[in-house]
Fold:
Amino acid sequence: MSQTADPPVSPQAAGSLGRTWEAFWFTPADSRPLAAVRLAAGTIGLLACGSYAADLAGWFGPGGLLPVETVAAWRSPLAFSLFDACTSVTALWAAFVLLAALFGMLAIGLLTPVAALLAAVGWAALLNRGPMLAGPADDCLAVLLWCLVPGTAGEHLSVDAWLHERLGWKVARPRVRSRLSLGLLQLHAAVIAAAAVFAQLKGDVWWNGTGLWWVTTREAGRLVDLTGPLLASEYLCNLLSQGIVAWELVFAIGVWFLPTQRLLARLAVFVWPLIGLLIAEPLWGLALASLTLPLTGWFSASGD
Amino acid sequence: MEIRGGSGAAPTLEAHSDAGELPLRQTPPTADLMMPSHPATTRSEPVGWAEVPRAVATVLLTVYLVGLGLTVVGNSGSGASLLVAVIKGRLYSPWMVPAWLDLGFDHPITYGQQTDADHGLEFRVHGAEDWQTALGTNTGGPRAARWQRLLRAVVASEQEPGREGLLPAGFGAAVFAACGSDDVDLRVVIRPRPERQLPLAVSDPVVAYQARLRQLSGGELQLIKREARREVAPVAAPGGTP
Structure:
């Protein structure tokens, strides 16, 4: 007896899924938005390097607080760092300055494909040298850098573009590689926001509206002191705390849908840095805003 | 509802080619393309990928997306199933950890607990009265945030098997040099934060970790952790009087 069972996925659904996948990842895209992200990533990288500079030798140098043996025993056995090999202060500073120079090259778009790859490798190496020092902004910057690697972020607003124009080498055009980069940026922007929501909802303070209070009363690293207004108004405290969670949730979902995508992305360019300022993680806010830059439409070829 | 990609999307695909990046639409050569002295323009035709590169990219993307899902689930502070941990550890961590991609993005900002409060590092020559504060802990901005993470890691490591005492022992050489002695005390203090309903007041710091660190004559480092005294019930003597 022969039986004809329904296929687990209908051909229409599979075809639709396949077309959506193809359109999302493989439609050639203009690289102007990537140039904006590249500029932001290079600048954030320089700022992040600045937060290491004052303590570099005090942490990682000979006789520093974090000797290589201690860190190697503390971190994952799978991790390694090129900075482990820097056993003198001179070598350590040379490697660090090289990394900062790579971020500078990325920002101005000089030898962009090489600079993007080496900056991502170098940043991962610095973080693996002291994993206990790394925070949310460092994670987001690492993702931002790796997302830029496959794309052609140097085709616009860059020294590369200027040189290519002068020499008549390469035509800037929509490419699949750029689309892959843009897709990865969008995906990570949503994943990071969603993961932050899930992490916050595990704690009572984000439900009862006191989350921002506990952040504001931390003095170390604080950029804005809101203790006065938050103490004066319980409603303001609740509004801001729960507003942060609500924003992350709305952003993580809304960024995938046509009617809300552009509006949310444009809001995100201002809201993420503002949240970063409130929670004393300014680079985290800037990195998240950078991830959403391509979705704003401000840098598209048509200018719409 | 339509799911939408980024704004950099170019016109839709109209044809596929079999080899590498080839023009998808045949158009008459434009002046820009014919004159290499003016090449930098986005008015050139978009190029798509052939079947094989797209298939390879699809496989790579799928592998990465599965890894991304596993790292988000596997790095959650709530823990994850053993299966997730094993799959992630065996297949993904070996290449994601060195690239700093084994991330859960588990950033709660705060849970309002003591572990989130401001930490400070203090040290002194063993037996001395006054404590010195480590310089970096009093700074502001992202630099201070790194110090806070380091000190939180010192305290949190005491609860993690295999990591107890590792970081304080590593501080040895730096603290010996700062104190000018081979026998020092160091401690991590936490400054409690006020409840929102209570008036702002500076509370006394709580010692979260304290240890004596000394270098023995053979160069060996000795770490003697100071344990908090716990209240115990009085031992009852056989005669009935304690």
Residues 152 and 178 of chain A are 6 Å apart (CA to CA). The two ends of chain A are 61 Å apart (CA to CA). Chain A has one domain: 29-296.
